[in-house]
Design a protein that fits this description.
This protein has eleven helices and ten strands. The chain has three domains: 7-119, Acyl-CoA dehydrogenase/oxidase, N-terminal domain (Butyryl-Coa Dehydrogenase, subunit A, domain 1, Orthogonal Bundle), CATH 1.10.540.10; 122-233, Butyryl-CoA Dehydrogenase, subunit A, domain 2; 235-380, Butyryl-CoA Dehydrogenase, subunit A, domain 3, CATH 1.20.140. The protein has a four-stranded mixed beta sheet with strand order 1-4-5-8. A four-stranded antiparallel beta sheet has the order 2-3-7-6, with helices on one face. A two-stranded antiparallel sheet has the order 9-10. The chain is α+β, with helices and mostly antiparallel strands and 381 residues long. The chain is 51% helix and 15% strand. The chain binds acetoacetyl-coenzyme A (CAA).
Length: 381
């Protein structure tokens, strides 16, 4: 896509592209098979600045903006969606709320470890009984002297199995009817007594990414680990997701781009009826639709990232990018399998993985239905 990039933006995109092609693409099938992103890959990405993209240099970050981060995320996800989401959650869901809402002391304590990927970050909002209706969460935190005593269960926590720091949303006002007005954000360290991390879920796709439940049994979290203002944490959750959703939209674009690249190659090589299948209009139209919709999704992603950088409202645009890109990736990962025929259904060809990886993008960080709620509410306000 011809989107005018500055020299710096083009350079960072190229850096990510080279890393994706040389270091990630060759091992992405293994990452899927092993159900694990090797720690040395995350360390290499930290060396390139990709694990602390938004953080300033004084805490070890790369000092990039959301626009550049989107360029990087699209490249990384094209090669490996498991690595892509690990990176996205670490940057957007764990570090971004610290950068925006943490005290100077909290930033000093946690950001240098996160930006170097010595510590991995996670974000925990969902619970077994509250998914889309996140303001109904019931994990309870009661102030007891210098601590919050936390009890409850969280689930579907990306990076949870490898994370050292969790941004956890809890109910600090006992009145559940208050919904979002009684929710706070806590920074929870993995070593917290009474806090345990569950086993990795066995997932359909993004199998290299860790997804766990979290259990709090009288866990004592220091009160100084409150992020932002007590009972005002829901806005931190939502503002953070505005950024995270741009990241998942990037993931969807990356998977769709990988589906297109594989399909284009296959269509030129595969011969039927004495000619490459790319000669058939049925295949050409699929490829043309895929290329067009990928570009449309990229433009939505880059617009949302630009607005976030400008500090202007971008909730609607982030949701539009995620909604369109994730639905598009699913449609086209399906078509990529179709272009590959029987070969698309077996693991020897990567489109089988893209099909499985695409599926989550319309679900996590807010379902497509939740994105439509957000977009419609913004329109009707
Ligand atoms: N930024 C800042 N504040 C926001 C906001 C935003 N984007 N969106 C809403 N708010 C504020 C509102 O202004 C309101 O505050 P006031 O009362 O002071 O005005 C407050 O938050 C509540 O807003 P709503 O009334 O709109 O909230 P709601 O309870 O009706 O919920 C919702 C709206 C869109 C359904 C929301 O709950 C939502 O996005 N749900 C989906 C949750 C989700 O994405 N979960 C995924 C979790 S992360 C994950 O997937 C796991 C992982 O590890 C990747």
């Amino acid at each position: 896509m011809n989107f005018t990039l500055t020299e710096e933006e083009a350079a960072i995109q190229q850096l990510a592209r080279e890393f994706a092609d040389k270091e990630l693409a060759p091992v992405s099938a293994k990452i899927d098979r092993d159900h694990r992103v090797p720690r040395d890959i995350l360390a290499k990405m930290a060396d390139l600045g990709f694990m602390g993209m938004l953080a300033p240099e004084e805490v070890g970050g790369a000092g990039l903006n959301n626009f550049c981060m989107a360029l990087v995320q699209m490249e990384i996800n094209r090669a490996c969606a498991s690595t892509g989401v690990a990176m996205s959650v670490h940057n957007s869901l764990a570090q971004s709320p610290l950068l925006k809402f943490a005290t100077e002391e909290q930033k000093r304590r946690y950001l240098p470890k996160l930006t170097k990927a010595e510590w991995i970050g996670a974000y925990s909002l969902s619970e077994p009984e509250c998914g889309t209706d996140s303001a109904a969460l019931i994990t309870r935190a009661v102030r007891d002297g210098k601590h919050y005593v936390v009890n409850g269960t969280k689930n579907f926590v990306t990076n949870g199995g490898i994370a050292d720091l969790f941004i956890v949303f809890v109910r600090t006002n006992p009145d559940v009817a208050l919904k979002h007005k009684g929710i706070s954000a806590l920074i929870v360290e993995r070593s917290t007594k009474g806090f345990t991390v569950g086993k990795d879920e066995k997932k359909m796709g993004i199998r290299g990414s860790s997804t766990v439940s979290l259990f709090f049994e009288d866990a004592r979290v220091p009160a100084e680990n409150l992020l932002g203002v007590e009972n005002d944490g829901f806005k931190i959750a939502m503002n953070t997701l505005d950024g995270g959703r741009i990241g998942i939209a990037c993931q969807a674009v990356g998977i769709a781009q990988a589906s297109l690249d594989a399909s284009l190659k296959y269509a030129k090589e595969r011969r039927q009826f004495d000619r490459p299948i790319a000669d058939f209009q049925a295949i050409q139209w699929k490829l043309a639709d895929l290329a067009t919709e990928i570009d449309a999704a990229k433009l939505l992603v880059l617009r949302a990232a630009r607005l976030r950088d400008q500090g202007v409202p971008h909730t609607r645009e982030a949701s539009m990018a995620k909604l369109f890109a994730s639905e598009m990736a699913n449609r086209h990962a399906t078509q990529a399998v179709q272009i590959h025929g029987g070969n698309g259904y077996i693991r020897d060809f990567p489109v089988e993985r893209y099909f499985r990886d695409a599926r989550i993008t319309t679900i996590y960080e807010g379902t497509s239905e939740a994105q439509r709620m957000v977009i419609a509410r913004q329109m009707l306000r």
